[in-house]
Amino acid sequence: MPDAPRPSRRRGGPPIVSGIVNLYKPRWESSAQYVYKLRGVYGERKVGHAGTLDPFADGVVIGCIGRGTKLVEQIMTLPKRYHTTLQLGVTNGSFDPEQPFEPVEGATPCTSKDLEAVLTNMRGEIDQAPPAFSAVKIDGRPSYRMARKGDDGDRPMKRVMIYRNEIVRFEWPHVELEITCGRGTYIRAIARDIGKALGCGAVCETLTRTAVGPFRVEKSLRLGQLGEDDAGKPGRVFGGVVRVVDEQDRDDDDTQDVAKFLLSVEAAKEKMAAYRVDDECH
């Protein structure tokens, strides 16, 4: 089945497009605000996202357009793959670079054998407490708002799945990890728990989501490819090709090859049905 999306038509309105977009989010961008740029690219106001990334992280965020928004819940259940760099021997309240790194007094270097033993105990189904600085709600209140007011105590545990966690490179105090995990897993919490288990502290320096199920970062739409300010311009669809245009100065040179990044609802369902997480773990 071809991947090109089929335009649908609102009653009494212009043609619209529906589907999903494998979008690359750069560091220090809001996931939601970045996904909403797709409104201008594809000329459709109904846009949502299937999960967010922390501001300091980059990588795959799935944008859902038109009827594609009905796939949000299904996409969010897909395993995610990450590449992260941790710094050992330090800590902070958020376990990421949004706060200064604080040296852990008395921390001593660990070995790769020590680290592997900790990772082994963190595979499969585990109980994980979300970081205090997270969007999880406690009695209806976002945890991060409570943390900003000084309530940074332990959060309720929840079950998460770690399919894979492997050392890519280790040289004290830095370690690179590849992690494949299930819904609701916080990589910052993994860093926190590794630091606790080793007795030296740990913080995420970098975090890249390299895949959401079958949707890989190598195939992501990078809005920077469209040219400066293109993502903020209104979009129009002509025969399945999206043109990023300026209403004051429209010509054929404004055509951008972004239609190929829009996967139809039907094709997205097929791609997800064929995906097997075991392929990520071997």
Task: Write up this protein.
It is a single chain. With 282 residues, the chain is of the alpha+beta class. Helix content is 18%, strand content 32%. Strands 3, 4, 5, 6, 9, 12, 13, 14, 15 and 18 form a 10-stranded mixed beta sheet that branches. Strands 1-2 form a two-stranded antiparallel ribbon. It starts with 7 loop residues before the first strand and ends in an 8-residue tail after the last helix.
Summarize the structure in short.
The chain is an alpha+beta fold. It is 18% helix and 32% strand.
Query: What radius of gyration results from the CA coordinates?
Result: 21 Å
How large is the share of residues in beta strands? 25-35%
Structural class assignment = alpha+beta
Shape: globular
Let me know the number of strands: 18
Estimate nothing, just give the exact number of structural domains.
2
In whole angstroms, how far apart are the ends? Answer: 28 Å
Q: Biggest sheet, in brief?
A: 10 strands, mixed
What low-confidence regions span 5 or more consecutive residues with pLDDT below 50?
225-256
Helix content: 10-25%
- Average pLDDT confidence is 81
Helix count from the secondary structure assignment: 7
Order of helices and strands: EEEHHEEHEEEHEEEHEEHEEEEEH
